[in-house]
Design goal:
The structure holds two protein chains of two kinds. Chain A contains 22 helices and 14 strands. In chain A, 44% of the residues lie in helices and 16% in strands. The N terminus and C terminus of chain A are likely disordered. By secondary structure, chain A is α/β, with parallel strands linked by helices. Chain A is extended and about 100 Å long. In chain A, the strands form three sheets. An eight-stranded mixed beta sheet of chain A has the order 4-5-11-10-9-12-13-14, with helices on both faces. In chain A, strands 1-3-2 form a three-stranded mixed beta sheet, with helices on one face. In chain A, strands 6-8-7 form a three-stranded antiparallel beta sheet. In chain A, a hairpin with a 3-residue loop joins strand 2 and strand 3. By secondary structure, chain B is of the alpha/beta class. Chain B folds into two domains: 152 residues, P-loop containing nucleotide triphosphate hydrolases (Rossmann fold), CATH 3.40.50.300; 88 residues. Chain B has twelve helices and nine strands. In chain B, the strands form three sheets. In chain B, strands 2-5-8-1-9 form a five-stranded parallel beta sheet, sandwiched between helices. Chain B has a two-stranded antiparallel ribbon with strand order 3-4. In chain B, a hairpin with a 4-residue loop joins strand 6 and strand 7. The mean pLDDT of chain B is 87. Classes of the chains: A alpha/beta, B alpha/beta. At the A-B interface, helix 1, helix 2, strand 7, helix 15 and helix 21 of A face strand 3, helix 9 and helix 12 of B.
Chain lengths: 577, 265
């Protein structure tokens, strides 16, 4: 039941969530019971009567929280109570007092008066309470505040929890399905028209429609560059690729010109872990522009919270002469000052050398994963794509606002010959509403050839970054998957690509936002590159500072090792290690 | 710097013995623990017990080696060396306490290495001398492992030159005693505050970066001693400092209301 029956937010039982978590010692939520029900819990949420007085609600919450804290609702107990309401009531009458007494230190004063010490003394564990309840002795029925134990729903909730724990397989499966269904569809339709509902950006309904839409999202970028009405073009493009045609290496010239793609594709090697060697010129990466005429909604970046942790980032430590204070004397300034003093000119006092962080010296390229897996729902409700996009917008705005050079690209792939980087903001673009609308127009689709995208991102950074310090930020759920690119092969290639970039002095940083990817899975893909996973974009501010610093430090370390034409002044900026 | 009366500190374990043993053996000490659990007060009490002056440096991320060791200043036509706090402690045999040492730049903490190990020396390259620490010198650093970051950490080479003492929040009876003494409130009021503190520490909610420390509980006690209603005191001293999030604040207010029973609407 939703709290819709009590529209006043301040009166919602959710406000007690912190209290109930404090009493139970674990994070619990609070919601309103269905009308006529007694307070109960499913182990993660405590349900109370929103209409009762605050004191009664607190008492009911404290009882349920104490039951959870005292282990009274362990599966082995709950199993015994199943289907025996009278036993459950007798058990609650004993165990409730025992649980409260065991937790009495943390109980609010009024709740403590509920405890019947005599009954509490009859059992010293949930099992003992169960034994007492199974016995023949009379037991006074539990007070109203004790609510009820609902074995059925407790078990159902626990099963649900176990079932929804995400596994990498779960996250991957829908993409396979999508491909299979699409193949079938394309086969039967033979490049023909896609029925109308699928062609609109919001028209698709039903599972197949949504899946198709996810794939058809390809048509929003001019990568295919075919002409004609929207629906057939999308169908043709996707169908062609689903059948394995190398579209991107086809007779590109005229089509690309029409589509407005200015650059030829660039080829990159791919690391084959099975043979322990590179496959030269294996992937073709092409940059594309999002079509300007279908701009999406502008992505709003609200919080300035990211600015602070990033503000001190990669500010070059400059040795500044003629400072009013500092670590060392500036001899030239001191001599001049002396001469002036002897000549009768009032002397200045700026005679020190100080190390100040003033110069922004950082180029950041953000790679945003817009493959189909990003359209998965995130635990917080929105899709992973929404969350990642918000994070990308926040990072771009914060870094740009601080005076760094920032570029933002989305990436997806459709086989090794069709890796696309969608230019949302290049280094030279101004950061304005157009950029944010282009970002808003991105729709996730297709697959993730992570290694090629990273290699191209790193190359762009080196070519056009224009600063000594470079940072590549990859926003991805960490699932690398494409044709002939999965599992350990894909993970090894992505790791390799990151290591290559680092060896050339580009810091790498990988962020998973809202995808719920396990840290172990991220580590397989991102290796030793600095990486983190956060549940919501808002939590970025917490991890951003140290993560960025770590990424930069590792890059500088490599740069120092490689002796990559380090300018004498840069050596000053490298803090000792 | 040593005060006339012993700063109030109630030991929760063997930390006093460990510290004094390390001091006598010339070992450096690292204090780990959450903010507001009594690390600074502990050092003050130890400095008093051992009869050594205490020099405290609050570290920040622009702290340079020169800030710790010293620098040349220009006076008239002459250069004049000015000792930094660390050099002063080394010369005088004082306890040098570097608070939140992870905040300092990593190149800065390296200057501590020869001081922290068996050499007990401070090389000052600007003067071209190497000072040997006077008897009674003790290097103490503190840091908060959970604070700020997963990655900002002390270097292993620094850590392994130190003896570590872990701090947690004191057990309820000790914490009650601390609040009664520090804030001058009645036992019952202190017990209520401690219970609130424990419930908040217990909640493990994602909305709070840090839990209610002994320090904020004392602050709430001090406000109560000034005549404020317990709820208002707790809201101002506990809920306010812990979070800016309106939802979490509301949750904290309910929690405080449940424990400071009676005047609730």
């Amino acid at each position: 039941m939703t709290p819709a029956s009590s529209p006043d937010a301040a009166r919602r039982p959710t406000r007690f969530a912190l209290l109930v978590s404090g009493i139970a010692g674990r994070t619990l939520d609070v919601a309103a019971v269905a009308p006529g029900e007694r307070p109960w819990t499913d182990g993660t949420t405590v349900f109370v009567d929103a209409g009762a007085s605050a004191t009664d609600q607190i008492a009911a919450l404290a009882v349920q929280a104490s039951l959870i804290a005292a282990g009274s609702l362990e599966p082995r107990i709950v199993r015994r109570l199943s289907g025996r309401p009278a036993l459950a009531r007798r058990y609650l009458a004993v165990e409730g007092h025992r649980a409260l007494a065991a937790n009495s230190y943390l109980l609010p004063p009024r709740v403590r008066s509920l405890i019947d010490r005599d009954i509490a003394a009859r059992a010293d564990s949930p099992l003992a309470s169960l034994a007492t309840a199974l016995g023949r002795e009379p037991i006074a029925s539990p007070p109203q505040a004790f609510g009820a134990i609902d074995p059925k729903r407790l078990r159902a909730a626990r099963d649900r929890l176990q079932a929804t724990a995400p596994t990498p397989e779960d996250a991957r499966r829908p993409r396979h399905d999508a491909r299979r269904e699409l193949d079938e569809h394309a086969g039967s339709d033979d490049f023909g028209r896609v029925p109308e509902p699928f062609s609109g950006s919001t028209g698709g309904r039903g599972a197949l429609g949504r899946l198709l839409q996810r794939m058809l999202a390809l048509s929003r970028e001019p990568g295919g560059g075919l002409q004609g009405a929207a629906a057939p073009r999308a169908a043709r493009l996707v169908a062609g690729q689903a059948r394995g045609t190398r579209l991107a290496t086809g007779p590109a010239g005229a089509l690309e010109a029409v589509a407005g793609v200015r650059r030829q594709g660039r080829t990159y090697p791919e690391w084959d872990i099975h043979r322990q060697r590179y496959r030269e010129n294996w992937c073709t990466v092409r940059e594309t522009d999002p079509r300007p005429r279908d701009p999406g909604p502008e992505v709003i970046t609200g919080s300035p919270a990211l600015r602070r942790p990033l503000a001190r980032l990669a500010l070059g430590l400059d040795r500044r002469h003629r400072q009013p204070q500092g670590d060392d004397l500036d001899i030239d300034a001191a001599v001049e000052e002396r001469v002036e003093a002897l000549a009768g000119v009032p002397p200045g006092e700026a005679v020190y050398i100080d190390s100040l962080r003033r110069r922004h010296d950082l180029a950041v390229l953000i790679l945003l994963d817009i493959s189909g897996s990003a359209s998965m729902p995130s635990p917080s409700g929105q899709t992973v794509h929404d969350q990642q996009r918000a994070a990308a917008a926040a990072l771009t705005t914060a870094l740009h606002g601080l005076g760094n050079r920032v570029a933002l690209y989305g990436f997806y792939s459709h086989g090794r010959s069709a890796v696309r980087l969608v230019r949302v903001k290049s280094f030279s673009d101004r950061l304005d509403a157009t950029v944010m609308r282009r970002l808003g127009a991105l729709v996730p689709g297709a697959y993730t050839r992570l290694g090629a995208a990273i290699r191209h991102g790193a190359a762009v950074l080196e070519d056009r970054g224009g600063t000594a310090r470079r940072l590549l930020v990859v926003l991805s759920d960490g699932f690398a998957y494409d044709y002939g690119y999965e599992g350990s092969y894909a993970e090894a290639d992505a790791r390799r690509a990151l290591a290559e970039a680092r060896r050339r002095g580009t810091g790498c940083l990988c962020l998973s936002v809202g995808a719920g990817t396990e840290i172990a899975a991220l580590r397989r893909v991102f290796g030793t590159a600095a990486h983190a996973t956060v549940a919501r974009p808002q939590e970025l501010a917490r991890v951003a500072g140290p993560l960025f610093r770590e990424a930069l430090r590792s890059a500088e370390f490599h740069r120092g090792l490689a002796q990559h034409s380090v300018h004498p002044r840069q050596q000053l900026k490298i803090p000792g290690r | 710097m040593t005060s006339a009366v012993r700063p109030f500190y109630v030991p929760a374990g063997t930390e006093e013995q460990v510290f004094k043993a390390a001091f006598r053996q010339g070992l450096s000490v690292m204090l780990k623990g959450p903010t507001g659990c009594g690390k600074t007060r502990f050092v003050e009490a130890m400095a008093y017990d051992l009869g050594r002056p205490l020099i405290t440096v609050a570290c920040h991320d622009d702290l340079t080696t020169a800030d710790l060791v010293g620098r040349f200043l220009l006076h008239g036509g002459e250069t004049q060396w000015a000792d930094g706090p660390l050099t002063r402690a080394v010369r005088d045999g004082a306890i040098c306490y570097l608070d939140e040492v992870v905040e300092a730049r990593q190149d800065t903490t390296v200057v501590l290495h020869p001081l922290a190990d068996h050499r007990r020396q401070l090389p000052i390259d600007r003067l071209g001398v190497t000072l040997t620490a006077a008897p009674g010198f003790c290097l103490v650093v503190s840091y908060n492992p959970g604070y700020q970051s997963v990655l900002k950490d002390l270097k292993d080479s620094t850590r392994q030159r130190m003896v570590a003492i872990e701090f947690g929040f004191p057990p309820p009876d000790v914490e009650e005693k601390i609040i009664t003494t520090e804030a001058g409130v009645a036992q019952e009021a202190a017990a209520q505050l401690v219970r609130i503190g424990h419930a908040i520490r217990n909640a493990q909610t994602a909305g709070l970066r840090e839990v209610a420390s002994t320090r904020v509980l004392i602050a709430a006690g001090l406000l109560t001693a000034e005549g404020l209603r317990p709820q208002d005191a707790a809201l101002a001293a506990i809920a306010g400092p812990l979070t800016d999030d309106p939802l979490v604040t509301a949750g904290l207010a309910e929690l405080i209301g449940a424990y400071l029973d009676g005047e609730q609407a």
